[in-house]
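sorry to bug you again but im stuck and you know this stuff better than me. below you get a single protein, a line of residues and a line of whole numbers that encode the local backbone shape. mainly i need to know what kind of three dimensional shape the backbone takes. anything you notice is useful, everything is just below:

***
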Amino acid sequence: MKLLVLGATGATGRLVVDHALAAGHTVRALVRSPEKLDAQPGLDVVAGQATDAGDVTQAMSGVGAVISTLGATGGSVITDATRAVISGAVATGVSRFVELSSFAVLRDRLSGPAKFMSSTAMGAMVKDKAAAEDALRASDLDYTLVHAVRLTNGPATGVTKLLPGSATLRMADTISRADVAVWMLTALTDSTTSRRSVVIAG
């Protein structure tokens, strides 16, 4: 499959690109600074803004699905990028979208310490991601929202759990970025994740 990856120069996005290429996919990466990505067979790096609907629509042309691992510390970057994908889907017909969110968005499921720590350190990002999720749920996209617990930089373990809706989410819950990357790629062709929000942990 040919994939468009948003956030490809980030810590998780780079792993998505690497694992996608290793799995035999071809990848188009829309990035602000193409020089940050090394050339690899099967990788097409395109300069542009993930928040610009025109850039995203052009980058979506000819791909089978979109993965976003965008992260931001404030403003409306994630919301604007999500809306750009929604707009691009109308123009290109590409409807499959897997987006990385955060467990911190799920405020009513957080333990007390997790709620306090995430509101202090991640408050602006949580608001942005929550608004992006609202826009996505209101769209016609075939989306999967991936709420990952606290990310680590460890190697892939091959073990990823889907946490039930009754599970309390704690700061002690972790998952490696590598495992998140692999799971997001698997979700692309898993119909059971269509128009669903899931919480994954290691």
Q: What stands out?
A: Strands lie at 2-6, 26-31, 43-47, 65-68, 96-102, 142-148, 150-152, 161-162, 174-176, 196-201. Residues 59 and 100 are 19 Å apart (CA to CA). The two ends are 26 Å apart (CA to CA). Helices lie at 11-22, 53-60, 77-92, 112-137, 177-187.
